[in-house]
What we know:
Blueprint: E1 4-7, H1 17-32, E2 36-39, H2 51-64, H3 87-99, E3 103-106, H4 110-123, H5 139-147, E4 153-156, E5 163-168, E6 172-177, E7 185-187, H6 195-205, E8 210-214, H7 221-231, E9 237-241, H8 261-266, H9 271-280, H10 294-300, H11 315-329, H12 332-342, H13 346-356, H14 365-370, H15 382-386, H16 391-407, H17 413-427, H18 431-434, H19 436-443, H20 451-458, H21 460-473, H22 479-498
Parallel strand pairs: 1-2, 8-9
Antiparallel strand pairs: 3-4, 4-7, 5-6
Helix pairs in contact: 1-10, 6-7, 9-11, 16-17, 16-21, 17-20, 19-21
Amino acid sequence: xxxxxxxxxxxxxxxxxxxxxxxxxxxxxxxxxxxxxxxxxxxxxxxxxxxxxxxxxxxxxxxxxxxxxxxxxxxxxxxxxxxxxxxxxxxxxxxxxxxxxxxxxxxxxxxxxxxxxxxxxxxxxxxxxxxxxxxxxxxxxxxxxxxxxxxxxxxxxxxxxxxxxxxxxxxxxxxxxxxxxxxxxxxxxxxxxxxxxxxxxxxxxxxxxxxxxxxxxxxxxxxxxxxxxxxxxxxxxxxxxxxxxxxxxxxxxxxxxxxxxxxxxxxxxxxxxxxxxxxxxxxxxxxxxxxxxxxxxxxxxxxxxxxxxxxxxxxxxxxxxxxxxxxxxxxxxxxxxxxxxxxxxxxxxxxxxxxxxxxxxxxxxxxxxxxxxxxxxxxxxxxxxxxxxxxxxxxxxxxxxxxxxxxxxxxxxxxxxxxxxxxxxxxxxxxxxxxxxxxxxxxxxxxxxxxxxxxxxxxxxxxxxxxxxxxxxxxxxxxxxxxxxxxxxxxxxxxxxxx
Length: 499
């Protein structure tokens, strides 16, 4: 059997460090066994998926040193490799499930489903999820309602008795009662498949032999196993990798840790060091050495040696390992080359020079003008940040900006300025007063290079880091205050949409 593994990220934002973590183990297993590593793009969320985010996935994975044998940009015999281009295949297999009685049309409204969930929570019922109401509709009733154009989804039939039993490479036998498995929506009302249907159909047609994914997907395995049985297909071998965690053992999240691969690139980490550290998260070399290359990991890799537990992604430890790569693995010439690639390259300078060229008399002036563009956080005191305003008022504006920046589909000075202008109008302040804390948070100086251009060049992650650092300098926001601010921000978003 030829081993084939895959990763299937969604192009809905910055590429996540967790994507590289899962990709690394899939890559190592495939290459260790002379197989293929496949990249598939799960872009059925058409509202959030963008071509720019897709390209960032390609660029980020290649930056850390991972290449794929088949994918949207390299082709292959099992394409297309974007789910949005495989609609006919999903529609065909969904119709097959309905015809065989393994799936059904569901016309229940969102209001009924919400009421059902509330009733189940209130009663403490052990049976959760959809109650199967529309399974009782006759074929004639279904046909009549479809002819009327009633909105509907297609759900899979799930047993209500017994339990699902499946095997995991690392965990052995896993049992989950069918009462804990919802009658999953397979085809949404917009005609697009959910992850669960597309995942199974694609893995089968792309001849994936091993599925290595995060342990958060364990509870979805019964749905997938059932679909394989309904279609009469062999299920791939499952291996659920331990979840990356913050130092406090919570799930790795951008609220507590930098999660974007671009943050690590912009901060000057070596891709080899980052990949080396990700390998450490759930696996060790046979000789237990700390530093190893991707090629060395492939040579020594054994899937059964992946350790369970909650691997803690600790940025200081990553920094320490990265320091060893910089000092021990690079000679001076290589160090210079990497430094040039990081910040002294034409691409970066071409963004910076238009902002500074008319402001300098000597090249040495560049240091004072741009020093804050080459570091992570900048220091500023609370009194200067406030500039005569109340600390809570300033923190509110800064917090709103962080949340709005996080939600932006594209990161450029136009979209950044749009966020600031909306928030400025909401505050009732003049623009020059409103933006002063942002200038200080970005540069640590009362005057600096143009704000929105600076933010664009610094990038979304460092911009958010600096604003969050400014909020902490002002005393920080407690849980109660955050909850109140989130409600105010939600109301502001609704108001903006209505306009």
